[in-house]
Amino acid sequence: MKTSLDCIPCILRQALEAARMASPDPAVHEQLVREVLHCTAGMDLSESPPAMAQRIHRRLRQISGVVDPYRPAKQRLNRMALGLLPVLQGEVAAAADPLMMAARLAIAGNVIDLGANGNLREADVHQAVQQALTESFWGEADGFRQAVAGARSILYLADNAGEIAFDRLLIEQLGPQRVTLVVRGGPVINDATLEDARAVGLEERVVVIENGSDAPGTLLADCDEDFRLRFREADLVLAKGQGNFESLNECGREVFFLFKAKCPVVADHVGQPAGTQMLVRTPVGQKAAG
Amino acid sequence: MKTSLDCIPCILRQALEAARMASPDPAVHEQLVREVLHCTAGMDLSESPPAMAQRIHRRLRQISGVVDPYRPAKQRLNRMALGLLPVLQGEVAAAADPLMMAARLAIAGNVIDLGANGNLREADVHQAVQQALTESFWGEADGFRQAVAGARSILYLADNAGEIAFDRLLIEQLGPQRVTLVVRGGPVINDATLEDARAVGLEERVVVIENGSDAPGTLLADCDEDFRLRFREADLVLAKGQGNFESLNECGREVFFLFKAKCPVVADHVGQPAGTQMLVRTPVGQKAAG
Q: How many CB atoms lie within 10 A of CB B146?
């Protein structure tokens, strides 16, 4: 997915929030914002938003000297989501269709995205859970069910810390023995890394690998060869979150995307109102975001 | 007031909205956004936001060839506000304190600001009116009343089209014979010009002058000498709107500002929640926005 002009104010807001997360020094904030302005002035809009975000967050780590500014936030989000897990497991167990209830709750977990909303409150998470419990998602329920039934190997691309605890619900329904969970190769925003998979108890339940990249999405050319091979060969690929959608929606193989359409640009791209719980398959529409 | 780093994403959003208002051509939108990015990368943050906005909107007029992209919007907003006027005049007439009710409604009219909210709906205006009818403003009621009582000459700096119809309520209470109404010297966003003063029937009720500048605020050095003389010599200066506040809150003379704190930066500067109806006097706090 290309970067829309509407993404640019949002990229700047996100850069400023990240700078404040990394450092209390206003000079660091100003330097990063000026560099991002300079860099976006000449940016290639045919790149996806995660490609730009990757460059910004790398530069922030250089300027601030802080390797993982979101680490305390990620730890807090993992704890918060783990706290909700027993109740949500009960909801899945009691549901008429546990697979689809688990998918809806995994999508609800995608609200825990500090890139889209740096001021996320616990109330936002509770609201997303309520929505998942009462509203179905928009998209491919039958196609998803068939693909799950027929797959021997499932590659599950995680998105965010906190959210990754919600992913346990769906992974338990899919059957952990056929799932490989993929996390980012390095910290960026609150995207899930190996540490987060460990913190929510997934490392002991499924095979977990890193993708070799520090982009807040899946830029295939930037991922390592082991990941790319698994990505090509898996019977089924599930990708969580807007960043994975923005970077893989034209990737050439079938992927099921599970996410909340949080921003107006993505919502417009999929033709649904912002806030919609999405479960869609590549290719998604022909409409270019521009 | 200085430009905060938080203003920059908002400046970009506003530039993009303005570009879309001026032209249906995506190449125009992209050119303006890239130029604004380049220009803000090197901007002097000690300048006020209206100074930056002035440059952006001048450049937009050059690129698009459209002298007044907001003209149809301004005409629509004037008609909408004029339609509300008879009911609001009734509210002022029936109020226990007509001067203060008129001030509150004039402040409510400041919601009609397409710089702060390009998607303004008529419902937003109704909501602001309801707030004004039921809630007092934050600030200097007594100081304002005394200043009004003692003034022979009042300079009233208008802000936006649409809003300027609400200003009639307060000008009627102040006594039109001692009021000089000031509008912008040229079109910028939906700021009120001579044409808007005429459209809402103010030109026939008070002396109306232009300030000689096309900034969406009052940059004294950019205004003409006639205006500056009146600004220095008026017994009382009332200034409507965030743009006038941002550009005059450190101007060295007493000014009463009437506005809704619409953005988080201004709200933080005045130490009140966003949405607060403000009637404050220079100097306002000592806190720098940064």
A: 11
Q: Which residue of A has its CA nearest to B19?
A: A5
> Of how many residues is chain A composed?
290
Instruction: Please state, in angstroms and rounded to a whole number, the distance separating the CA atoms of residues B290 and B285.
Output: 14
Q: Torsions phi, psi of A74, nearest 5?
A: -65, -40
Which run of H or E residues covers position B260? strand B256-260
Adjacency order of strands within the sheet including B256-260: B138-139, B277-281, B256-260, B236-240, B154-157, B179-183, B207-210
Sort out which chain A residues have CB atoms less than 8 A from B35's CB and list them.
Answer: 41
Token pair in block for residue B226: 């006639």
- Rounded Cα distance between A15 and A49, Å, is 13
Separation CA A222–CA A235 (nearest Å) = 22
Q: What is the pLDDT of residues A217-233, one digit of tens each?
A: 999 999 999 999 999 99
- Residues β-bridged to residue B205: none
- Beta bridge partners, A279, equal A139, A258
Distances (CA, A) of B2 to A27, B47, B72, B266, B275: 15, 5, 32, 11, 21
C-alpha span between B134 and B131 (Å, rounded)? 5
- Subunit contact B10:A9, Cβ cutoff 8 A: yes
Q: Does domain A71-281 have CATH number 3.40.50.10880?
A: yes
Token code pair at residue B42: 């090197």
Assigned CATH topology for domain B7-64 = Helicase, Ruva Protein; domain 3 (1.10.8)
The terminus-to-terminus CA distance of chain B in angstroms comes to: 10
Q: Could you give the CA distance from residue B106 to residue B179 in angstroms, rounded to a whole number?
A: 15
pTM, two decimals, is 0.89
Q: How far away is chain B from the Cα of A85, in angstroms, using its nearest Cα?
A: 35
Contacts made by residues A176-179, CB under 8 angstroms, sequence distance 24+: A176/A205, A176/A206, A178/A151, A178/A152, A178/A153, A178/A154, A179/A154, A179/A155, A179/A206, A179/A207
Q: Is the bond into A24 cis (omega within 30 degrees of 0)?
A: no
Predicted pLDDT at A283: 73
DSSP lists the bridge partners of residue A210 as A183
| Per-residue pLDDT tens digits for A29-59 | 999 999 999 999 999 999 999 999 999 999 9
* Nearest CA-CA distance, residue B234 and chain A, Å: 40
A207: left (phi over 0), alpha (psi -120 to 50) or beta: beta
Closest CA to B35 of B19, B51, B24, B49: B19
Judged by CB atoms within 8 Å, which residues 9-38 of A form the interface with B? Answer: 9-10, 12-13, 16, 26, 29-30, 33-35, 37-38
**Is the distance from CB of A118 to CB of A77 less than 8 angstroms?**
no
Q: How close B262 comes to chain A (CA, Å)?
A: 18
What are the structural domain ranges in chain B? 7-64, 71-281
* Contact in structure between A240 and A181 (CB atoms under 8 Å): no
B239 membership: H or E segment, kind and range: strand B236-240
